[in-house]
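In this supplementary section we document a worked example of the pipeline. Step one takes a protein sequence of length 84 as its only input; no multiple sequence alignment statistics are reported here. Step two produces a three-dimensional model, which step three serialises into C-alpha cells for compact storage. The input and output of this example are shown verbatim.
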Amino acid sequence: MSKTFTHDEILNKLTEILVEDFEINADLINPEANLFDDLELDSIDAVDLAVKLQYFTDKKIAPENFKKIRTVNDVVNAIEELLK
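The serialised model returned by step three reads:
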C-alpha cells in the first residue's frame, strides 16, 4: 500500500532534507526556489536528493521525470503525482 502525504508534509520533508543533508539555509527554501540557481545544487546533489526522496516515498522517481524538475514546487508536485 502506498504512503500518502499532504502537499505540506511533502514540502516540510523536502525542506528538512535540503537543510539537514545539503546544508541549505531554510530561509532560501520556498516553492519558487530553483534547485540549481537559487539553492546551488549540482547534478550529483540532484541524484542524492532523488535517492533520499525514494526512501521517503518508497517509490522511485523516473529519471526522465526528475530531469524536468527545476524548482522546489516541481519536486513536491512530482512526488504528489508519484503517490497517486
